[in-house]
Specification:
Structural class: mainly alpha
Distance between the termini: 156 Å
Shape: globular
Strand content: under 5%
Helix content: 55-70%
Largest sheet: 3 strands, antiparallel
Radius of gyration: 54 Å
Number of helices: 15
Strand order of the largest sheet: 2-1-3
């Protein structure tokens, strides 16, 4: 096998080695050119910060696919066959890595590993041949040929599109509709590529059989455009710091809490005063309550009946010292409590005649009522 050897794979060429033996197949490659040109314009319309080097790489690869396919369908030798296959393989590898890393957030190390496995599957599938009654790797059988007219090498790409599309649909990614649509169309294009020789005599244009390979070109151009359009649905701008530091829902920042406290209406006291004045008067009310509680205890002690004084002897002698001493032995707390008594206790003293002014000169002793009783006796 030499590099200049002609390759006869498609219906339109047949066994004709002329340069212009596949005009329909060659012209249909304009679909790749239009797909790359339209996507390039879409990229230029976007702001600079939303553009990515990957977008320009996709455009360059699709232009290379277009050029290589035209060369292969014009010259149809082993060299131009490589010019057709290599850009397609590079696009599949690059786009798979882009989808894994940018769409599915797969780490770079795993992305490279999965892309290497994919490349091995593609290379292995291209070595699968079919012969009468069997299928397997090329082994030198006399009637062996590539299976499905060489479409087996695209089955790993179809499987990758199915997996990526399903994962994107599960995550409700914006790129999912484009990838899923490309998957459906790519399935149809592989089928038509495989049936090119089978439908060779059924698809005829101006009296010459052309097969279905040109439809493979047009559908694949649409597939590549949808995949490139899906790449625009990724966020190329970095996330702003304010959004990254935003608190979770339901939580308020300190400034928000302070503003919420400031917006609350200030409570007022019963007298119509602001809340801060009521807070100042609250301790005074507490003091008054405690003072009343202290004055109530001596009042209860005073309310207790005092022991009746002993009757004085008829001879007019002074009362016994025990009675006077009993009056003098009252605690000083009683005298202080009388001074701090509430108005209610003063009214009670006025009714009973117990005037503090009528006490004995020593400031000690019982109430006025006791002294009057002694004098009467």
């Amino acid at each position: 096998m030499t590099l200049g050897e002609h390759v006869y794979l498609y219906c339109e060429r047949g066994t004709n080695g002329a340069l212009w033996a596949e005009p329909i197949n060659a012209i249909s490659n304009a679909g790749f050119f239009l797909a790359a040109l339209i996507f390039w314009q879409l990229v230029l319309w976007r702001p600079k910060e939303q553009r990515s080097p990957d977008h320009y790489l996709f455009v360059a690869l699709v232009f290379a696919i277009c050029a290589g396919s035209v060369a292969f369908h014009v010259y149809a030798d082993r060299v131009t066959e490589l010019a057709d296959v290599i850009p397609i393989g590079l696009f599949m590898l690059v786009y798979l890595g882009f989808a894994l890393n940018r769409f599915l957030n797969v780490p770079p190390g795993w992305t490279v590993f999965l892309a290497a496995i994919f490349a091995g599957l593609v290379a292995g599938s291209m070595q699968i041949h079919c012969w009468e009654g069997g299928i397997g790797f090329a082994g030198g059988a006399p009637d062996e040929k590539v299976c499905l007219n060489g479409s087996v090498g695209y089955l790993p790409a179809l499987a990758a599109l199915i997996v990526v599309g399903m994962l994107l649909a599960e995550r409700r990614h914006k790129a999912a509709p484009y990838v899923l649509a490309a998957t459906v169309i790519f399935t149809g294009s592989i089928l038509l590529r495989s049936l090119d020789m089978s439908f060779c005599q059924r698809v005829v244009i101006e009296g010459r059989p052309v097969g279905t390979h040109f439809i493979w070109h047009l559908l694949n151009a649409l597939v590549l455009f949808l995949l490139m359009r899906a790449s625009l649905e990724t966020e190329t701008r970095p996330v702003p710091a304010t959004e990254a530091a935003a608190p979770p829902a339901g939580e308020q920042t300190p400034s928000a809490e302070s503003e919420a406290e400031a917006d609350k209406p200030k409570s007022e006291t019963k007298a119509g005063q602001p809340a801060n004045e009521s807070d100042e008067t609250a301790p005074e009310e507490t003091k008054d309550d405690s003072a009343k509680a202290e004055n109530a205890e001596p009042a209860e002690e005073e309310a207790k009946p005092e022991p009746e004084p002993q009757a004085m002897p008829e001879s007019g002698t002074k009362p016994e010292a025990s009675t006077i001493d009993n009056d003098k032995d009252k605690p000083e707390a009683a005298e202080k409590s009388m001074a701090n008594a509430s108005p209610d206790i003063e009214e009670e003293n006025a009714e009973t005649g117990n005037d503090p002014a009528d006490r004995e000169p020593g400031g000690q002793g019982a109430g006025n009522g006791t002294a009057k009783k002694k004098t009467a006796i």
